[in-house]
Amino acid sequence: MAEPTPVKSVSRRTVLKGIAGTAGLVSVPAIIAACSSPAATTAPSAAAPSEAASAAPSVAESVAPGSLTLGSNYSDAVPKGVLAGIVDTFTQQTGITVKVNTVDHGTFQDQISSYLQATPDDVFTWFSGFRMRFFAAQGLATDISDVWATVGGNYSDAFKVGSTGDDGKQYFIPIYNYPWAVFYRKSVFADKGYTPPTTLDEFKTLAAKMKSDGLIPMAFGDSDGWPAMGTFDILNLRQNGYDFHVGLMAGSEKWTDPKVKSVFEIFKDLLPFYQDGAAGRTWQDAAQALVQKKAGMYLLGMFVSQQFQEAGQAELDDLDFFPYPNFGTQYDAEKALDAPIDGFMISANSPSLQEDLDGAKAFMEYLAQPATQVTWVSQDKGNVAAAKDADTSGYTPLQKKAAELIGGAQRITQFLDRDTNPNFAGANGMQAFLLDFLKNPDQDLDAYLGKIQSFWDTL
User: Fold this and answer.
1) Same structural domain for residues 306 and 426?
2) Domain termination residue (choose one: 375, 395, 415)
3) pLDDT the model gives residue 41
4) Together in a domain, 123 and 194
5) For an engineered disulfide with 332, which of 104, 147, 326, 376 has Cβ 3.0 to 4.6 Å away?
6) Do 271 and 125 fall within a single domain?
7) What is the CATH number of the domain that holds 375?
8) How many Cβ atoms are within 10 Å of 375's Cβ, its own excluded?
9) CB neighbours of residue 292 within 10 Å
10) What's the CA gap between 101 and 367, in Å, rounded?
11) Listed residue (171, 107, 127, 183) closest to 340, CA to CA
12) Final residue of a domain: which of 358, 376, 395?
């Protein structure tokens, strides 16, 4: 048997220069089709990164092409296909193969702690916020401050802060973020004469009108445990403000505080407008009520657009949103919202990375390039690129509006399960408590909140 031809090693600087492909982006139908095969080969080609980024000095002299594994929570068709194309392009340009191991999004989040403590993949998808810092502090993530020394110019200070651990080192590469807002179909609002509300009273009046018109006012699915957290977040931000909310997430405020009780009273007051049977419905199924014009509104992250994108361009073009209405409190001026930052980290316990991190770090540098992120968000249209110099000329109207909403917010949170202790947020914590509330909203709220605080105290 002939000896295999040696593969020339490539520098991480060469990795970045090599992404100067000029072929067009892969179509969304092709991406979704690629998801049906465990070895998707269709790959989009990224536009060339800026010359400044290409010429940035690299930390490592060379990378020996090999292989990486990537633990992914991108289990829905659109983002799963986009990631497949991203890693294939990286492989084409560097010779470094990336095996993607996809796990259902909810399961991935619930099992992340045990996953990282065992024998995790080399790189994994994750989020900015408390939980990123938590895992870094536990020694479960790899310091990539040297990568940030190369790519930091691509990001604003806010994104760097969101990628920094308690020790001042960087552990995370942001790729995009997206807002949580109230989504609706423009055609439904036009046909019914509805107007997006700006106050809580207007919101409830609109919901009541939708109900009398035979629509489900608010689509809702919480079988994965986390969607209800988004409702709690925005209600708490509107009622009690950003400082109280982040203090509650950190444990410096108490769940037994009357301020928290007021949030659940508002939540209870709104539940008659929510889709019944939420505990047994996924967010995707709830989104279909909006797609099919059975529901009038849906509070969710902009990834809800994936369901419209799969239904066709005309459906996606009909999607719009408005920020959650004000409550007439002193906190209205904050314009606060959840705008989670998604990205990638390198695990600390992957056996294959104990001696050589250069390939994984080259991949992180590639993900940090504005062109890579534009490739992503031009195909997964529910997000906006994190890189500050990303070309936004191809953004859809929805993406441009999302960028404006995020840019106008005076206070931004990541999301309840990202902003607090993962053991508190998980399936046995707030996920279970919120499901209990949804099933029995008439229960004694003082006793209910006492249970939540007692659970926090055990941690």
Assistant:
1) yes
2) 395
3) 29
4) no
5) 326
6) no
7) 3.40.190.10
8) 25
9) 12
10) 18
11) 127
12) 395
- Based on the number of CB atoms within 10 Å of its own CB, is 114 exposed (0-12), middle (13-18) or buried (19 or more)? exposed
pLDDT tens-digit readout, 191-209: 999 999 999 999 999 999 9
- pTM attached to this predicted model: 0.80
Percent of the chain surpassing pLDDT 70: 86
Domain, as residue range, for 23 = 12-176+342-395
| Average pLDDT along the chain | 86
Domain total for the chain? 2
- Indicate whether 86 and 196 sit together in one domain: no
With H, G, I as helix, E, B as strand and everything else as coil, classify residue 103: coil
CB 271 within 8 A of CB 213: no
Which burial class, exposed, middle or buried, applies to 1 when counting CB atoms under 10 A from its CB (0-12, 13-18, 19+)? exposed
Q: Which DSSP symbol is given to 194?
A: -
CA dihedral 148, 151, 155, 161 (to 10 degrees): 0
Instruction: Judge if 242 and 270 occupy the same domain.
Output: yes
Minimal CA–CA distance to 171: which of 421, 354, 367, 345?
A: 345
155: number of Cβ within 10 Å = 21
Q: Which bin fits 383, alpha (ψ -120 to 50), beta or left (φ > 0)?
A: beta
Q: pLDDT (tens digit, 9 = 90+) per residue, 321-333?
A: 999 999 999 999 9
Closest CA to 322 of 335, 313, 308, 307: 335
Instruction: Give the number of other Cβ atoms within 10 Å of residue 439's Cβ.
Output: 10
Is residue 184 located within the same domain as residue 280? yes
Q: Is residue 268 part of a domain?
A: yes
Number of Cβ within a 10 Å radius of residue 421: 18
3-state helix, strand, coil in the chain (%, to 5): 50, 15, 35
CA nearest neighbour of 286 among 357, 220, 190 = 220
pLDDT at 215 exceeding the cut of 90: yes
